[in-house]
Design goal:
Helices cover 57% and strands 17% of the residues. By secondary structure, the chain is an alpha+beta fold. The protein is rod-shaped, with a radius of gyration of 36 Å.
Length: 338
């Protein structure tokens, strides 16, 4: 779509803070690095694609981007407030896509967001929060001009695929910790600190699942719906991303089930330990009760107690006590209580 020169936005000075990269591509090759206020003029040229990457930009940069590509006010508002659910929305001939990113920070999952504006001849990515730089995506695309020559929908695919692939290192690290925790539960039980860590892992995995789940619908729409800027030849690639997202979902569900089992197992182990202690206490109390009862009887000091006058009464009572205690100890030991 050619834009008349009279319709192009007036150039204005915009801060470069927050602009990671801005380039123009023709047939998959970068032909120029551009300033933000030049984007519209380059984008209007046939077979030119403008690819702009932003990181936590301020509103002045977003406003400048809006003027260059005539973006919708609601999409710009969403991009400025980085607390969006993953989604895909269509504004005229442009798409606005939100995806959640994830990284491990001090053993916990930190979440970020990526907002993508896609239209004829341009793609703008806006990163917020915990997110890996998309420089590797740009380098990989530039190393294969034939693939990048497909246009802005291929760039969209490359970024979404990169986001989904970056879930894997997070899951692999958590998987190792969960396996170690599972072995610990079966071997020695868990301490309070370890149980708290187990709870935090389940919470983080639930938040990650909530971040990943909606991406299935986003990729499904890119794969099946007749959306502007998405050619039918690109739909198999988005189907591949959908498969990767579902695989991530299955891994998350599997780990949450393991953590649920570990939590239940820790409770069962704790109950078993408490039961074992209770059995030991009950056994020793029963053994101690025998001499206590007999000594209590002969300690009443009644005058009419014939046994007190027996010559061998003391030895007989001691023998009875020892025999009864030994018998109880043997029976409890055989039953596994001691």
């Amino acid at each position: 779509m050619n834009v008349p020169s009279s319709a192009l936005p007036v150039a204005e000075k915009v801060s470069t803070e927050g602009i990671v990269a801005a380039g123009v591509y023709v047939e998959g090759r970068r032909v120029a690095n551009i300033a933000l206020d030049e984007a519209a003029s380059w984008r209007s040229k046939p077979d030119h694609v403008v690819w702009i990457g932003l990181h936590e930009p301020d509103m002045s940069i977003l406003t400048a981007v809006q003027r260059q590509f005539q973006l919708h006010d609601l999409a710009i508002e969403d991009a400025d407030h980085a607390h969006q659910r993953p989604k895909i929305e269509q504004y005229g001939d442009a798409l606005f896509i939100v995806a959640r990113t994830a990284q491990l920070v001090d053993g916990n999952i930190a979440f970020g967001e990526t907002h993508l504006f896609v239209g004829e001849g341009y793609l703008v990515s806006v990163r917020h929060g915990a997110s890996t730089s998309y420089a590797p995506v740009r380098e990989r695309c530039e190393s294969c001009p034939r693939a990048l020559a497909r246009g802005e929908d291929y760039i969209l695919y490359a970024i979404l695929d990169f986001i989904v692939d970056n879930y894997s290192p997070v899951l692999e690290t958590l998987q190792e910790e969960i396996e170690a925790m599972e072995e610990l539960v079966l071997a020695n039980g868990m301490t309070r600190t370890q149980i708290e860590r187990l709870y935090l892992l389940r919470r983080d995995l639930l938040r990650l699942r909530n971040a990943v789940g909606p991406l299935v619908e986003v990729c499904r729409r890119l794969e099946h719906d007749s959306l502007p800027m998405i050619r039918t030849t690109m739909q198999p690639l988005f189907r591949d991303v959908t498969d990767h997202v579902r695989t991530v979902q299955e891994q998350i569900d599997s780990m949450r089930e393991v953590l649920a089992f570990a939590f239940e197992a820790s409770l069962l182990v704790g109950q078993a330990q408490e039961t074992a202690v209770s059995k030991k206490l009950a056994s020793w109390l029963a053994i101690i009760a025998v001499p206590t009862a007999i000594a209590g009887i002969y300690g009443m000091n009644f005058k009419n107690m014939p046994e007190l006058e027996l010559k061998y009464g003391y030895y007989t009572v001691v023998a009875i006590i020892l025999t009864a205690c030994a018998t109880l100890f043997y029976r409890f030991r055989r039953a596994g209580w001691l």
